[in-house]
Amino acid sequence: MSTSSQAGGARVAGALTTAVAAGLGLGLAELAAALVQPRTSPVSLVGAVTIDLTPPPVKDLVIGLLGTADKPFLIGCVLAGTLAITAVIGSGLARTARWATIWIAAVGAIAILAALLRVAVAPSSLVAGLVLAAGGIGALRLLRAQLLRAQEEQADPAAIGGASRRRLLATGAGLGALGALAPLLGRALRPAPQVTPELVAVPEPEVQAPELPEGLDVEGISPLRTPADELYRIDTALVVPGYDPETWRLRIEGMVENPYEITLPELMAMPMVEHDATMLCVSNPVGGDLIGSVRFQGVRVRDLLARAVPLRGADQVLSTSVDGFTAGTPLEALTDDREALIAVAINGEPLSPEHGAPARLFTPGLYGYVGATKWLTTLSVGTYAEQVAYWTTRGWSAKGPVKTSARIDTPRGNGRAEPGADGRVAVAGVAWAVHRGVGAVQVQVDDGPWIDAELSEDVNADYWRQWVVRLELAPGEHVLAARAADASGELQSAEVAPPAPNGSQGYHRISVDVRG
C-alpha cells in the first residue's frame, strides 16, 4: 500500500471517528434538552438562528418547494452541516485531536449561548450545551485512543487492522447508534405537563356559528371545512413549545391605561364566540395549499383591549409567542367589527400543540404572519413607528391584507381530465377574498372568453367559496385559468407576483390533457 493511500485511510478514519463523537454529543444533548428544557435543543436553536438569517426570497423558495416539510429539511441540513464540518476538522485526528476537541467544545458553547439569548438566562439553559461538549469530547478521546492502538498494531503506523481495528469499529458503531437513539429516547421520556380537564376544557360558546351549508358535490374539490389535522403549519418553531396551564398567562400591556394579566381559567370563563374563517400563509404561492378554512372558537380581542383601554396615538398591537416570534397587527383590525379572536379551539376541539395551544391570535383578512400568532403570551399596544415585528424587519409588508384569489382543485395540473357521463369536464376549486367576500369566479379555456362559475352557498365574508364550471372540451391539451372577484366586484390582479413581500398574485393556470 502506498504512503499516500495509507495517509488517505488515516484521514478517512479520523473524519469518521470525529463525526461519530460529535454525533454522540449532539444526540445526548437532545436527550438532555428533552428532559430538562425542550427549547434548549441545540439543533433547534441553530435551526431557529438559520431561519432568522434566511432572506425572505430563499425562505419562499424553500416553502414553495417543500411546503410543511421545510422543518425536517432544515433540521437535516443543520445536522449534516455540523457533522460535515466536524469530519473535515477531524481528518487529522490520527496526528492530533486538538482542533477536533476545540470544535466540539465550540459547538457546545454556541448551544449554551443561543439558549441563554433565545430561551432564558437560567441553569436549565446550560445543560444541553454542557452535555454536548462533555459527551462529544469524551467519545472523541476514547475513539482516538482506539484508533492509535489499531495503527500501532501494524508494522506500518498508517495501517489499521487486527483486534484493535475490530474494537474500534464496534465502539464507533455502538456510539453512533447511541447518538441516533438518544433523541428518540428523550421524546419518549419527556414529561408531559400536568393538564387538568377543568383548565383546558373548552366551554360552550355564547355566540354559535350557523351550520355550514351543503358544499358542492364535485370529486376532487377541497371540502368546505378543513379538518384540523390537515390544516397547514408554517411557523418559525422547530420545537413545538409546551405550556403549563397552571402558570400560563396572557399579558396585555404597552400604550394602555390598565395593563393586566389573564390566566387560562379566566380566559376560558369569558364569553366565547364561534366564527368560520379562512386562514392562509403569506408564503402560499398561486394555487398553493398553505390555506385552510376552519371554525375558530375564542374570546374577542376587542373585549380584552377594551378592558386595557388603548391610549390615543396607538395604531398597532405587537403579539408575542412563547418562542419569541412577534407579529404586528393593525389596532383597527382588532377593534373593528370583524371577529378577531384569541382562539382556544378549532372545529370544536381544543387547539393542538402544533396549532398554538393553549391560545393563539386569529385576525380575519390578514395573512398569518401579521394576525395569527401561535402560543400567545403578550399583546403589546403601541405604534408601527416604535415596534417592528419579526417578518417586518426582514422586508415583509407591515399590514399584510389577504389578496383575492381562486384556485383550481380539479382537474389536477399537468394531468388527465376525464369527461363525465354528460361528456363535460368539471373544473372546480375554491376562491377567497377574506373579510371582503367572494362575489364571482370565472374560468378561461385557452385564452378564450371568461365563463362564470357556479358558486357554493356563501358562509360569510371571511370564508372561502367552492365553485365549479362544467365544460365541453375537445380531446387534447388545454390551458385552464381561474380568477375571482370580491363582493364589490373588484377582480383579483392578473399581474404575476411572488409571495414576498405581501402575498402572491396572478391567475391560477394549469395544463390538462382531456381524453377522447
Description of the structure:
The chain is of the alpha+beta class. 35% of the residues lie in helices and 22% in strands. The chain has twelve helices and 19 strands. It has helices spanning 3-36, 42-53, 56-66, 70-90, 98-118, 124-152, 162-189, 197-200, 264-269, 301-308, 331-335, 368-371, and strands at residues 249-254, 260-263, 273-280, 291-300, 316-321, 326-330, 341-346, 349-350, 360-362, 376-382, 405-410, 415-417, 425-432, 438-445, 450-452, 454-455, 465-471, 476-486, 508-514. The strands form four sheets. It has a five-stranded mixed β-sheet. Strands 3, 4, 7, 8 and 9 form a five-stranded antiparallel β-sheet that branches. The protein has a five-stranded mixed β-sheet with strand order 12-19-18-14-15, with no helix packed on it. β7 and β8 (349-350) form a beta hairpin. The longest helix has 34 residues, at 3-36.
